[in-house]
Write a structure and sequence with these properties.
Largest sheet: 5 strands, antiparallel
CATH class of the largest domain: Alpha Beta
Number of domains: 3
Protein name: D-alanyl-D-alanine carboxypeptidase DacC
Signal peptide: 1-29
Keywords: Carboxypeptidase, Hydrolase, Protease, Signal
Structural class: alpha/beta
CATH topology of the largest domain: Beta-lactamase
GO molecular function: serine-type carboxypeptidase activity
Pfam families: Peptidase_S13
Strand content: 15-25%
Helix content: 25-40%
Number of strands: 23
CATH superfamily of the largest domain: DD-peptidase/beta-lactamase superfamily
CATH architecture of the largest domain: 3-Layer(aba) Sandwich
Length: 515
């Protein structure tokens, strides 16, 4: 619609007001209607927060249906996305692998099987299943025993060749090495719980009658535990794996109990140790050592397990912002498209998917967003969010996004403690992202008019505690947005019931706090 001269004057006045009260590069109203002008002024005021004076803020808001830009400030600037990277990884994985994709874990044997004896090797072959628990390896061992095998004369071969041998992202911080959210990536791995934190073990310590009791979940002799902690009047304990080893040192004081999720050094060795223990428990004896290698082409299958489909895995992946799922899916995409289970091959798939959907400005270095060299613009994220709405798989993917203010952990996810009792609660569906000095929130919200909107908020290089409350204020204001008229109660439109939470890491990366 063409503007009248009166509309142009009104637009200029709004721009002048926004400039005087907004951030260093404020947006102007892109539509002269009172509702959009009011939204522009409010978002500029929110972004004028002093914590962002030395930082960077990029924000874009668009109509999900028409693509009309309602607000933009520094929307074209490249910024660190943190876990907003998972929006691209998850969408590319669903498009490439399909919602029905399942990871397979199989047990094979080489040589000849004579009665209860396998004259050859037993092979455990994985394709990256992050949902494998100790009980699943036990179930595979039970299948082997049920097939009549009691003795294997050769070795236990751990076949993780579906992926390459590069375990850690090339840009990941060295001091994250033992953190479960930066665990090594392998085609053979195991999780300690149904969050499916693949490649990690839960190490627990408890004060019991003046003594300390140490345990692991799953029960395993893979880790070597060195306990230097003592009973004290408070929990001030550090549980940390030593660099490049399987040795976990516990130090400090323990008053009651404490648990830490610890990344293992070698997920292939960890998984195969669980399987060997399970075999022994079912009366299957492997005479040789455990080694790594590829299964012979003529090896015969004895047992198999498939994971849940990707449509279900999306829930723990996206709701809890699981980094390991993102990296495993990245390598799985590379394996399917290029026959190479590598980061390079998988990231090319993600990049090609983004470009095919109108996103040109991006730099993807990993699947999860742990790398500080990942770079997206708010505009590129909003463009992706708009484009995927036309995909046949969109509803399943959309349902996997965290939902603001919903306290159910597998519904609200990393947004479950945010925006409660506001217009955004059970409305905003968005992906969070957090690193030190980085926070992002991008997704969908329905306005007060019932209009679906997409938005991307990226805040970088601040020195304060995490300003997630700024994201929440913007999202709440979008939930209150109406084109018809300005919101009258300024206090109400900026009110946010925001629960405090640690800000430098994703909520679900802060086990065992579970904020």
């Amino acid at each position: 619609m063409r503007r009248t001269s009166a509309s142009l004057v009104a637009g200029a006045l709004v721009a002048a007001l926004a400039w005087s009260s907004g951030p260093s590069s404020p947006a102007i109203a892109l539509d002269p209607s009172p509702g959009v002008a009011d939204l522009t002024q409010d978002l500029n005021q929110i972004l004028a927060d002093s914590r962002l004076t030395i930082g960077r803020a990029g924000v874009v808001v668009r109509s999900a249906e028409s693509g009309e830009e309602l607000y933009a400030t520094d929307a074209g600037k490249l910024m660190i996305p943190a876990s907003n990277t998972k929006l691209f990884t998850s969408a590319a994985a669903v498009e490439t692998l399909g919602l029905d994709y399942r990871f397979a874990t199989t047990v094979l044997h080489s040589g000849r099987k004579l009665g209860s004896v396998v004259n050859g090797d037993l092979v455990l072959r994985g394709t990256g299943d992050p949902t494998m628990l100790a009980e699943d390896y036990d179930a595979l061992a039970a299948q082997v025993a049920k097939a009549g095998v009691k003795v294997v004369t050769g070795k236990l071969v751990a076949d993780d060749t579906w992926f390459d041998s590069v375990r850690l992202g090339q840009d990941w911080a060295w001091d994250d090495e033992t953190a479960y959210y930066a665990a090594p990536i392998s085609a053979l791995t195991a999780s300690p719980d149904r969050d499916y934190d693949a490649g990690s073990v839960i190490v627990s310590v408890a004060a019991d009658g003046g003594k300390l009791k140490v345990s692991t979940t799953p029960e395993s002799d893979y880790l070597k535990i060195v306990n230097r902690a003592t009973v004290g009047t408070s929990n001030n304990v550090l549980i940390e794996r030593q660099h490049g080893t399987a040795t976990v040192v516990i130090s400090g004081t323990v008053a009651s109990s404490y648990s830490e999720w610890v990344a293992v050094d070698d997920p292939t060795a960890y998984a195969s140790s669980l399987f060997r223990k399970a075999l022994a428990g079912h009366g299957v004896k492997v005479l040789g050592k455990t080694v790594t290698g590829a299964a012979p082409k003529d090896a015969k299958e004895l047992a198999a397990r498939e994971s849940m489909p990707l449509s279900e895995l999306l829930v723990p992946f996206m709701k809890l912002s699981n980094n390991i799922h993102a990296e495993i899916l990245t390598k799985a995409m590379g394996r399917k498209v290029a026959g190479q289970g590598t980061w390079a091959a998988g990231l090319k798939v993600s990049t090609d998917f983004a470009k095919a959907n109108g996103v040109e400005v991006l730099n993807i270095r990993d699947g999860s967003g742990l790398s500080r060299r990942d770079g997206f613009t708010p505009a590129s994220i909003a463009r992706l969010l708009t484009a995927v709405r036309a995909k046949p798989w969109f509803q399943t993917w959309y349902d996997a996004l965290p939902i603001a203010g919903n306290q159910d952990r597998f519904v609200g996810g990393t947004l479950r403690s945010r925006m409660r009792d506001t217009a955004a609660a059970n409305n905003v569906r968005a992906k969070t992202g957090s690193l030190t000095g980085v926070t992002a929130l991008s997704g969908y919200v329905t306005s007060a008019d019932g209009e679906p909107l997409v938005f991307s908020i990226m805040l970088n290089q601040y020195l304060s505690g995490s300003p997630k409350d700024i994201e929440d204020k913007i999202a709440i204001r979008l939930a209150q947005f109406t084109r018809a008229a300005a919101v009258n109660d300024a206090a109400d439109r900026r009110r946010a019931a925001i629960a405090e939470q640690p800000g430098d890491l994703e909520c679900s990366w802060l086990k065992p706090v579970q904020c």
